[in-house]
Target: Heat shock protein 70
Amino acid sequence: MSAGVVYGIDLGTTYSCVARVDRSGEPEVVPLSDGATTLPSVVLFVGPDDYVTGEPARRLARARADDVCALVKRRMGDGDWRFVSSGRAWSAPAVSSLILRALVSDVAFAAGESVRDVVITVPAYFGDEERCATVLAGQYAGLTVVDVINEPTAAALSYGFARFNADPPDTGPGGREEHEDVALVYDLGGGTFDVTVVELADRRVSVVAVDGDHQLGGADWDEKIALHLSRRVLDAHPDAEDPLDDSEAAQALLLAAEQAKRELSDRTRTTVRVEHDGHALTVPFSRDDLERLTAGLLERTVTLARSVLAAARARGVTRLDRALLVGGSSRMPAVARRLAAELGVPVELRDPDLAVAKGAALYGEKKAIERLVLADLVSRGQILDGAQPDTAAPEDLAAACRRLAEAFGLTAERVRRTVEVQVVNVVSRGFGVLALDRFGERSAVFLVHRNDRLPIAVRRSFGTVRDDQDVVTVHVVEQGGGVESTRVDDVKIIAQADITGIPPGFPAGTPIEITFRMGFDGILEVTALHEGLVDRPLTVRVETSAALSQADVARERDAVARLRRREG
Ligand code: AMP
Model:
């Protein structure tokens, strides 16, 4: 009997990585064919039918800039964006699918495993469209995307949050511990910073609040160091040209700066050799120097951490148990030290580059076990097909967990916990409809707000604008920027549908009742009901990216399937 492995994939902005849970229940990253654990998320289109991914593509990023697509994650959800190369145009899901395909074929090659079912991670701030685009990328790659999971949640799981893959402590006969845990996930990567409060309460893991700065990351630290080095060069050789004014010299300086920064995570001093304009200079550089130069950058992250904690408090989450560090830049010792001083809770640093993929693998294992428990309960007629495990009678659920535990050599309590703890999302952006305001202007009215907890069901009444109005168009919108704005130009229309065939005789102002429902899967269902058509409500399910039509999707899927991957 096999649980059918569900792999976890961190589809990152700069690097991607695959993990699975091993026989002992520990998550592990699956090495790729070149022995590396991560694949650069870069695609080089070699011609109309061939592509190259990963390190070889990245190395050619400069030489073949027009054919190399990097940072595609930033384009997810932007339906108008295309990467054009060799006369063909590729959407963000299509390019991402090539990265996924490369990962999966590498895993098949290196580990002899065929990957089909996956959980893919997404930033917590991703909206509906970006999540749908991510699922689409998986489908284009021929994968079954069992679920998407927020990156901070995945990171927290890999740190043992919610003790997903551990036996719960023995709480004595009949004792069931109601564990609560609140973590701040601090994710400082190369070019982005995300900070999130994640909570375990009522057997639910959810993101409580999200903040960050997508223009702040390790590269900013490198720049500060490079500036310092260029000043040292000019101090020693006042007649030399400023290395930062020369693009090649600036690039070399940045690389040296990054190298020094990494070294100073392990020791307290180093030297940097700078060659420029016929001069060579050895600059001593210490961890103290680094921390002094970059204190302002670190403070910016601390300010954002404070703000996310304030947002969590506003939502009633006042405790904080620990801080978890994610992203390569969180290896700088100043990060943990500063956060510990600021927050007064333990700060943990473990596998910061791989934590997200590992957490996704743990969640994947949960999904696999859950599927088996559900199948067992359904086959015995104890729940209906499609129902959740918590709809089963407690004794039936316990028996199903026992049977499964026996089959897999696990403890029943662990299986039960894996099934019971639910990973839920909050809404990352506001959703609403367009309506006329009191000045007769079209504006957005939000029914669902950022950080509202799922599941959601909200209802609100609007009115028709004319007597005998026979058609009402419902525009479903998503918040565009970081804050809700009622301006039509600031929102994204994600779906549009008409209530048609309204019989005459209804005056202007006749109520149209709009209901927004969003489940744990983040799929939005909008129902619009006109008094004259009570038996025929209009229902719109927003689950595929409105920006890519079904015809586009079908065409692209075929085109992607025909592409051949070349080894660099
Ligand atoms: P990521 O996007 O998570 O791979 O993070 C990459 C960033 O982490 C880059 O800015 C690296 O310079 C930085 N980084 C990686 N390792 C270290 C280290 N040991 N110390 C400091 N920064 C590091």
In short: The domain at 6-151+551-566 is CATH 3.30.420.40 (Nucleotidyltransferase; domain 5). The longest strand covers residues 204-213. The chain has a mean pLDDT of 89. The first helix runs from residue 55 to 59.
